[in-house]
Each structure stands twice: as C-alpha cells, then as structure tokens.
Prior knowledge:
Oligomer: single chain
Number of strands: 6
Shape: globular
Amino acid sequence: MEFFEVLRKRRxxxxxxxxxxxxxxxxxxxxAAFLSPSSFNRRPWHxxxxxxxxxxxxxxxxxxxxxxxxxxxxxxxxxxxxSRSDVWVEDAxxxxxxxxxxxxxxxxxxxxxxxxxxxxxxxxxxxxxxxELLGIPSNYRVLCIIGVGYPxxxxxxxxDEVFEWGKVSFNRFGEPWK
Length: 178
C-alpha cells in the first residue's frame, strides 16, 4: 500500500476481534518504533507490551476514554526516561505514531490513549495509576497506551474535507497558501 493511502485509510478503532496478535507482528510494531527519529538519537523510550487480559482490563480503567483497551488483545505502553531528553514527549510521540502506522500496514488497527497530563480520578493521575499497575520506575514518564488488534468495526477512509488549507500560511502567518 502506498504511504498516502495508509494515511487516508488508517482510522482509530476501539473495538477488536477476540484474536491474539502474533508475536512476529508485535516485533514488527516494535521495530517500527525503534526506527523512529529522536532528538540527538537519544532514544529515551521504553515500551511495555501487554497481552494479559486482566492487565488490559485494568489499563482500560486508567482514565475516561480508555475503555477500548478492554477489548484489545494487545497494548503497547509508551514510556520514556524523562531525564535522558528534554524532548522525551516528542520522541515518544513519534515512536507511538510509528507503531500506529505500522499496525495499519500489517492489517491491524489501533488507537491512542493519552496518559500524560490526564487524571485517573480526583486524586490520582492516570500516569501514577499505570506506573503502579505495571511497575514502572519513577524516572520513566508514561506518555500513552496504544491499543492494537484486528478490527471489529470498519470506518471509511478520510476524505478531502480533512485538508484545511485555510490553516496554512505562506511565508508569513495569515498569508494564504491558496
């Protein structure tokens, strides 16, 4: 599939078939993450692959909007060593996006669950909840969780309406591109 076709057709899916993701495909997802660029090639990330159904169910309660993880056969928790890079958020985000694009290319679907700067409940952050659940050391930050699996729903590709040319300036803010 051509790259721009991948971009148009990849959609977030939150309902999955009860079908495990083969280990070889999980390795390919991780390879895609490892191939992502990082500032000064510091590669501050660490990925936690979760396929244990009890842990997936617990992760689905990390915050509002994470319930799709309860049906996902696989999750990849994207963390990074915050002291290793001042742009760990950007580095980990690029790796997470690589995982999502690779998932689609491999016939899988995925969705992003934002964890950083989100709350589990009134007193506890989603990051602390996930950190405790998975034994993540305090020097690692939790960016997101990518739910992955074979889709149980179909969504149409993106149409041309996503091209918001009015949000593009030419040489100076406010100068129209088109």
